[in-house]
Amino acid sequence: MTDNVPFKHLYLVDGSGYIFRAFFGIPPMTRPDGTPVNAVFGFTNMLLKLRDDMEADGIAVIFDAGRSSFRMDIYEEYKSHRPEAPEDLIPQFALIREATDALNLPQIEMQGFEADDLIATYARQAKEKGIDVTIVSSDKDLMQLVEPGISMMDPMKNKIIGPDEVFEKFGVQPDKVVDVQALAGDSVDNVPGVPGIGIKTAAQLITEYGDLESLLERAGEIKQPKRREKLQDNAEMARISKQLVTLKQDVPVEVPLEGFATREPVAEVLRPFLEVNAFRSLLARMAKRLGDTPMEVADEAASEDGDPEYELVQDEEALVKWIADAKLKGTVAVDTETTSLDAMSANLVGISLSTGGNKACYIPLDHIAISESGDGGLDLLGGSADRPKQIPKARAIELLKPLLEDPSVLKIGQNIKYDMVIFAQNGISVSPVDDTMLLSYVLEGGMHGHGMDELAELHLDHTTIKFKEVAGTGKSQVTFDKVSLDKALDYAAEDALITYRLHAALKPRLVPEKMATVYETIERPLVKVLADMEQRGIKADRPFLHRLSNNFAQRLVDLQSEIHEIAGEPFTIGSPKQLGEVLFDKLGLPGGKKGKSGSYSTGADILEGLAAEGHTLPTKVLEWRQLSKLKSTYTDALQDQINSKTGRVHTSYAQAVASTGRLSSSDPNLQNIPVRTEEGRKIRDAFIAEDGYKLLSVDYSQVELRLVAEIAKEDALRQAFIDGQDIHAITAHQVFDTPIEGMDPMIRRQAKAINFGIIYGQSAFGLAASLGISRKDAKDYIDAYFGRFPGIKRYMEETKEFAHKYGYVKTLFGRHIHVPSINEKNPMRKNFGERAAINAPIQGTAADIIKRAMIRMPTALDNADLSAKMLLQVHDELIFEVPEAEVEATSEVVRSVMENACDPVLKLSIPLTADAGVGRSWGEAH
Questions:
Q1: What are phi and psi of 884, to 5 degrees?
Q2: Looking at the domain assignment, is residue 469 inside a domain?
Q3: How many Cα atoms occupy the beta-carbon half-sphere of 635 within 13 Å?
Q4: What does the pLDDT read at residue 279?
Q5: Which residue from 17, 317, 502, 656 could staple onto 441, CB 3.0 to 4.6 Å apart?
C-alpha cells in the first residue's frame, strides 16, 4: 500500500450521473406505499454490479450537494436555465443516499462545489500517492482529467475512456479539452463560449495556436473575417468560459482518501433497506452475502452463473432429448416465433424451450434465411441453398404435441395466450399453463408494465435482445422466417430462458403476498377461455360495412358543403388551425383561445360549448368529426380486419393492461364502438350470427352502482337494489326531495349523472360541465347526496386514506390495484390518483366478477348440453352465438352463471342481475 492508504486502485463514481441514467433507463416503478423507486432500484443495481465487476480495492460515490456552486459567482447565468428535476425523481434523492449507506460505500458531497470538482480533487490526491484512479462516468466534462494513472469508464457500455477516446470526442488530447470547451461553450450548462464556434472548429484552432490564451492574443491573424471578429469580440467571455469548465483540483475536502477502502455491506443494514423498497430480485441475488435463504425464490430464479447454453435443434434426435428432459423436469418454458402479431394469420416459424439453469434451445421450422455470411455455416447443415436444415414442421408438431398436452408437465409462457392460439392453429391444445406476464400483473399491477423486456430488467438485471436487433427496423425490417438462424437462436432461446427465470422469481411470491387466489381462480383459468374466444371471432357483414361506409362518405360530402356554406368559404375541416381561424377570426364566435403554437384550440370541449350556445357551424363540425372517425376507424378498417379464411373478426384480449383488472380489446378494439349515437349503434349491426343462429347479449344491470352500495355499506341504496327499485329515481327522491311518482325525467337524469359521477370521483366542476349547470349548484347537489348517503362519503375518505398509506387499494376478491400517483406532490396528479383510488375497488371488483362468470361459462353450457359459444366480452356484457332452438335455455344458463358469479367466495347483500337480449345482429341483441 502507498502512504498509509490501504488500496492501490480507486474507483470514483459519479453518483449524479448514475442517478439520471437510472431514472431515465428504468421504467416507472413504486414500492408498496406508492413512493417512486425506479431510480433507487437502478442506482442500487448498478452499484452492486460495479462492485462485483470492478478490479479496484477502493471506492467512493460522489454527489452534487445542490444547484449552487462557486461558478455562479463567476458567471451568474451558469446552469440557470436547467429544468427542475422531474417530480418522480425528487423523493428518490434521499433514498439514493440511503442506498449508498446500505451498500456500505462512502458518499461525498460539499456545498458550493460540484461533484466533478470533488472527483478531480480526489483523483489528483490519489495520483500523487501512486494510486491508479478510474472515474466511473461518461460525462465529457471529466475527460479533462484523463492522463496516465487516471482513466474513465463508461458504466453503461463498460468501456474504458482513455486519451484516444478523448481525442475522438474533442479532437485534442485531454490536457487541451478545457480550451476546446471554453471556445465551443455548452448549451446544457449555459457556458457561453464563442458564438458560431463548435467542437470541431475549436479543436482545429487550439491545435494550430497551442492554447486558448495564445489563440486570443493572435486572433487578429485569423483570415476568416467573421471568425476573427467573433473571437476578438468574445475574448473575455471565452476566458470566463474556461474558468467555468476547468475543474478544481484543490477543493478542501473533509473526508480523507484513507476512508475509501472497499468494505462489504452490513447485512443488518442492507437487508431492511431492500425489504422496505420491495427490491425482491436484489434480495434474492444478495441472499448468500446476507446470510439468508433466498426469499422463497427457487435456486434458478435469477441465476446467471455461467454463460447461457443455447442449442439449435435441427434434427429429431436432438428434439427428442429436449422433450425427454422437459418431461423429467415437469416444467418447461415455451415460446413461439411467428411472422405476425396477429395469431390468427401468423405462420409458425419456430419454437423455443427451456428447462431452467442456463439451457434453452430453438427449433426452427420454417426459416428461409441462411447465415449472414451466405455460406450456410451454422445454419445450413444439410439444408438447401436457400433454406437451412430444419425438422419438417408437421413432424416436429407431432413430436411436441404429447409434451405440450401432457397434464403432468407445466408449460410456462410470457403472454402464453398468444402461443396457445398459435399452437391451436397447428392442432395442439396446450395445458396446463403458467404465465409470467400475469404473475407480474397480479403481484404488481399498476406499478409498471409487464412485458418481458421490462420484467427482465426489474427482476433479473438482464437486458434482453430486442426484435429490431435481429429483424431490422422500418422498411428494412423482415419477418422472423427471414432472420438468419445464428441471430434467431440467441433471440428465441433467450426468450424461453428468461421466461423460465421470471417464473422462478415470481411464482413463489403468490402465497406470501396473498395473491394466489386472484391468480389461480381468476387470471390463470381465464387464459384458455380468452384464447378460445379469440379463435372463434364473430362474423362480420362485409357488404353491410361497405354500404355503411359509402353512406357515411356521402353524408360527409354533404356536411362539408353545409359547413363551407355556413363559413362562407371552403377550408380544410380536419385542420384545427384553419377551423379556428374560421370560427374565431372570420365568424367572430366567442371563447377563442390560442395555444402555445399560436393556433386556436378547437377540441371537442370547445366545440361542444359553442354548440350548446346555439352556434350552427360547431355543431356541424362535431357531426363531421364523428362520422369521419366512424368511417375510418370502423366501417373502413373493419373490412380489412375480416379474416379471409373464417369470414370473422378476431379481436385480441389483453389481461395485463388495465390496472383495475378490466380486459382490453385490440385489432380491432370492439370495446370502444360508440353506442350513444345512432350512427355508432349502426356499427354493431355489422356483427351478425351465422345462418340458423342468433346472437345473445347478456349484460349486468348497474353492477358498479350495486357494488358502490355494497362496498360503502350504504343501507338506503342497498335496500333500493334489494327491493328492485329504480336507483336513479330513488337518488333523485333522496337528494332533491322529489316524489317518485310523476318524476320529471330531467330530474332523474341529474340524479343518474350524480350516481355515476360519484363512482369516478367527479368534482363539482366535472358535474357542472356534464349537466350544464353552475358549479355552485353542482356542489350543492353533491353535498346533498353525501348528506343523504353518508356511507358513500365515508367510503371515499377511508379509501383515499388507505391508498395514501399503502400505495394500493383492493377489490372484494383481494386484487391489489397500485396507484402510483397517490402520493405525488403535484396536486393535479395527486387528485387524479385519489379519484382512481376511489373508483378502482368498484371497477376492479366488477371486472373480477365478470371474469369469474366467463371462466364458469363453458362448463355450465356443456353441463346443460347446450352448444352456444361465447364470442365477445365488452365491459359488463357477454355475447354468445346460439342455435336458434337453444336461445331460451342458453339465456337462462348464462344469466344464472353471471348472477351467481361471486359464489361461494363472496356473499353479496345485494343481488346481481343480468339482462338478456337476442337478435340476428349484435345491435339488435343489445
A1: -55, -35
A2: yes
A3: 23
A4: 86
A5: 656
